[in-house]
Design brief:
The structure is a homodimer of 479-residue chains. Chain A is α+β, with helices and mostly antiparallel strands and 479 residues long. Chain A contains 15 helices and 24 strands. Chain A folds into three domains: 2-277, Bira Bifunctional Protein, Domain 2 (BirA Bifunctional Protein, domain 2, 2-Layer Sandwich), CATH 3.30.930; 292-388, Anticodon-binding domain (Rossmann fold), CATH 3.40.50; 406-476, C-terminal domain of ProRS (Translation Initiation Factor IF3, 2-Layer Sandwich).
């Protein structure tokens, strides 16, 4: 019991310390733990189940858009990593090196994949010969490793789980279409499944993927007003195709290099999910990724008929395809309320003698903590409708929060105020020069996030240098 | 087209060279390719889809028996690996070492997990305090790496994909029950899903897992009469619990070490699947793991109504939940027959003008190549029944083949003949001494596989030394 008490002890409030709040939530809900190697995490069942639900729903979208899964090796020869100049510059400083296998020192060191462009390009160069082999649209679900200095579970860890799509195409147009299609798949998934509103656009040259022609990103706003890059899609052009010699014989009889894309999301999404929706009581989970969507609590469960009555409701919900848990542990009702609230279960059903008498269940929804009653006659449909409503409300709430915190700014003072004082995003006009990006970062801690597809025309001068502006850019502090 | 021709060129016959036949089949069907690092493989979509179907159906069985998935880190500190003496002795010679992260040489080298007992035990020691925390039954799907000298895709590769279950229990009995439950889950899965008959029993002390009290295995017979260890379940007793200090406060107020199990199957199952069922034309896949269960070929497809008629049948099969492919490519019918036979698709439907006139489809099943016709009126049900029949027939055929090749032997000459000349398993009585196991291996190349649960009493003397026999043991050459 001592342990259980600790389990539900106070979570630091967001107001007091957002970062500590996050750590408290992920550890106390047993989603994750720290691994023995610095910067690594153990994803515990409650966290991993969310990842499974993310995988399932994303994978269906990948398959529906014509992608197939495959698996490429973990270890990449150093020479492959070094082939594409920008890519190696970007990744070499953060890879882990395998230098010994069994008892032998390796002649050529191997890197643990930080991402798999290089090894996949190597294989594609063997597989592709004619335009008939294109497009080739593969994805893999795997672990990758980046030797990070400063880490936090889910948000940035040395090893993380992700999916990486890698496609090659006969034409530039097709590659660009694929790049855009996938950032839109991510956006739709983030908004409809994770209930996480995102702003989609293109990254600046400074922030784009090492080796890409263009990087598109979806950026979400956390409750502390910081941005989280939640998924990226890259148009790689022919950069990799040229150095890896991925060629095909086109219909016109000419040998050409392919055009390429890559795109990925990771376990970082779980961190985003938490920081967008959860509150001082603990997790708040959107029903579509909640390991448990509804918990049934028999109240005064030793009274005649209660357990049986509650069990029957539980069975009906399960049969209706709802992920439901039946909690018959001996703890007090109050203790259980706290625990399930902390765990973020979207809907709680309390069923006691009075409820059964009245052919009803008492319902509490996690997002608003509103209490109501529902007739048992149509409980399956009512709970499903309620779950849909929670899903939508979470999205609406997050979107409203975000809208309040995006500030159109004209001056550096306003930009600074937007990110520092008002804890939000600054939407500004920008000349497109790296010097201004660097200066804004130096002065405000904000980095360029994306040039939103939905451009706001806020004037014709760069917020930083005052020279003619090229584009509307979103600036924010970020994870 | 040159490439396509190569694609269907002759596969070496099993008779001529079984090993080359296997390589031809896996490469020509594009299930797999060799990775750039020696001993690694790339699992291509057609192979990976089989792994997904295996995962899906096994994972449902794990969840139904009360297990949850989690994810533990890839990298294990050397000190953890070294904690359990037998375990480190078994695995240290075959691990890959990470000695550098980013630009820093690591103070303590890390190993890439060859299996995860040590890191999971480390975490369990933090998580478990009371009998209320037990049993803890976790599984993870992941990649592992063992620095193997001699490799072959799916059967033995440096890196492979697998699942590893790790459970801890309050009592020895419960751990033994779990160990047996999981080997039985594997058996049922192998037989009912992979159509692969297996012999289940306990391993000798020599062959058991490094650190286990007892290892149980399922062994399958390949078409060349060699054995494949297809899945193992280990009772780890308290070996790891003691060195990792995994303790709990029991109901009686006493601190005790937990009892532990682990169990796993890997992408090796795909190799087994191929070597049990396939033939000189290529793959033969059991419907339950076939990426494509039925292919619909419109015959004379430019004749009026053929494409539409065939498409309609295809749509109906898809709607009935059958994994179906519609092949409208411009190649000849003969070319397509060859290709889909090579790919192992269980059922082929040919639909031409005559078929449509007669309201029928011409059907060829891959396992027997029998041709028949089926009415379109009930085509969904007929194809489903046919797929069930193929599934069962493959199992029956493999089992009959195996039964013919298990020889009860009384002498070393008979044992040698059984494995060398008759290419089968030898069932013999054994004294239980390692010296006899070693001698049998030296003389015949056969290793001890399992002491089958279904013991045959073949006499009272050891086949090798003639001393009193303790047990019936299966000997075979193996992969």
């Amino acid at each position: 019991m001592a342990k259980k008490q600790e389990f539900v002890k106070e979570i630091t409030s967001r107001e007091e310390n957002f970062s500590q709040w996050y750590t408290d939530v992920i550890l106390k809900t047993q989603m994750v733990d720290y691994g023995p190697v610095k910067g690594t995490m153990v994803i515990r069942p409650y966290g991993y189940r969310i990842w499974e639900l993310i995988q399932e729903q994303l994978d269906a979208r990948f398959k529906a858009t014509g992608h197939q899964n495959a698996y490429f090796p973990l270890l990449i020869p150093e020479a492959l990593l070094r082939k594409e100049a920008e890519h190696v510059e970007g990744f070499a400083p953060e890879v882990a090196w395998v230098t010994k296998g069994g008892n032998e020192v390796l002649a050529e060191p191997l890197v643990i994949r930080p991402t798999s462009e290089t090894i996949i390009c190597e294989m594609y160069s063997h597989w592709v010969q004619s335009w008939r082999d294109l497009p080739l649209k593969l994805n893999q679900w795997c672990n990758v490793l980046r030797w990070e200095k400063s880490t936090r579970p889910f948000l940035r860890t040395s090893e993380f789980l992700w999916q990486e799509g890698h496609t090659i195409h006969a034409t530039e147009e097709e590659a660009q279409e694929e790049t855009m299609q996938m950032i839109n798949v991510y956006r739709e998934f983030a908004e409809n499944v994770l209930a996480m509103p995102v702003i989609v656009g293109q990254k600046s040259e400074k922030e784009r993927f090492a080796g890409a022609v263009a990087t598109y990103s979806m950026e979400a706003m956390m409750q502390d007003g910081q941005a989280l890059q939640a998924g990226t899609s890259h148009n790689l052009g022919q950069h990799f195709a040229k150095v890896f010699d991925i060629k095909f014989l086109d219909k016109d009889g000419v040998q050409k290099n392919v055009y390429q894309t890559s795109w990925g999301v990771s376990t970082r999404l779980i961190g985003g999910l938490i920081m967008v929706h959860s509150d001082d009581r603990g997790l708040v989970l959107p029903p579509k990724v909640a390991p448990i969507q509804a918990v049934v609590l028999p109240i005064a469960m030793h009274k005649e008929g209660v357990l049986e009555g509650a069990q029957a409701v539980c069975d009906r919900l399960k049969a209706a395809g709802i992920r439901v848990e039946f909690d018959t542990r001996e703890q007090s009702a109050g203790w259980k309320f706290n625990e399930w609230e902390m765990k973020g279960v979207p809907v709680r059903l309390e069923i006691g003698p009075r409820d059964l008498e009245n052919n009803q269940a008492t319902i509490v929804r996690r997002d608003t903590l509103e209490k109501t009653t529902l007739s048992l006659d149509t409980i399956e449909d009512s709970i499903k409708a309620l779950l849909d409503d929670v899903q939508q409300s979470l999205f609406d709430r997050a979107k409203a929060r975000r809208e309040e915190r995006i500030f159109a700014v004209q001056t550096m003072e306003e930009l600074q105020e937007a990110v520092e004082t008002k804890h939000g995003f600054a939407s500004a006009m920008w000349c497109g020069e790296r010097a201004c990006e660097d200066r804004i970062k130096e002065l405000t801690g904000a980095t360029s996030r994306v040039m939103p597809f939905e451009q706001q025309l806020l004037g014709d001068r760069c917020v930083c240098c005052g020279k003619p502006a090229k584009v509307n850019m979103l600036f924010a502090r970020s994870y």
